[in-house]
């Protein structure tokens, strides 16, 4: 029983340390470069997973220099049909606006405020990896 208790306490301590370390990392530290095409000159990065009450939001971006050429919502909240429909709508609206305006300094999509903010937060972190020399696009990250 004593060994079991020691192992349980040690496991809990390791798990707590890992969770705390991940929680203290900035979103940019979670973003990762996932592809570089030397022939096309593009860089693709995957933003961090942003957890919400109804699921996770994660965005992948492809840039050509500092120009955003593609966006993919890799993960969206989908714990129920309403969340899924709102998330799909928000992702489509944000993708369209970002590609046309080349900025993430946008208003949130009505009815999908948290999803919109998480989408933009994941995207901004990915942009720092895919287009590191681009000017900052959004002054207010989600807290």
UniProtKB/TrEMBL annotation:
<dbReference type="InterPro" id="IPR007329">
    <property type="entry name" value="FMN-bd"/>
</dbReference>
<dbReference type="GO" id="GO:0010181">
    <property type="term" value="F:FMN binding"/>
</dbReference>
<keyword id="KW-0732">Signal</keyword>
<feature type="domain" description="FMN-binding">
    <location>
        <begin position="53"/>
        <end position="130"/>
    </location>
</feature>
<dbReference type="GO" id="GO:0016020">
    <property type="term" value="C:membrane"/>
</dbReference>
<dbReference type="Pfam" id="PF04205">
    <property type="entry name" value="FMN_bind"/>
</dbReference>
<feature type="signal peptide">
    <location>
        <begin position="1"/>
        <end position="23"/>
    </location>
</feature>
<protein>
    <submittedName>
        <fullName>FMN-binding protein</fullName>
    </submittedName>
</protein>
């Amino acid at each position: 029983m004593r060994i079991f208790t020691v192992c349980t306490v040690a496991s809990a301590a390791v798990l707590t340390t890992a969770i705390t370390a991940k929680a203290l990392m900035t979103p940019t530290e979670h973003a990762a470069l996932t592809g570089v095409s030397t022939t096309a000159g593009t860089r693709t990065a995957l933003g961090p997973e942003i957890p919400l009450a109804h699921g996770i939001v994660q965005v992948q971006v492809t840039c050509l220099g500092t120009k955003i050429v593609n966006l993919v919502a890799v993960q969206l909240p989908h714990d129920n049909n309403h969340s899924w429909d709102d998330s799909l709508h928000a992702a489509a609206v944000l993708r369209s606006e970002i590609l046309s305006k080349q900025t993430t300094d946008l208003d949130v999509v009505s009815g999908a405020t948290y999803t919109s903010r998480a989408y933009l937060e994941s995207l901004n972190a990915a942009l720092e990896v895919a287009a590191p020399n681009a000017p900052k696009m959004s002054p207010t990250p989600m807290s």
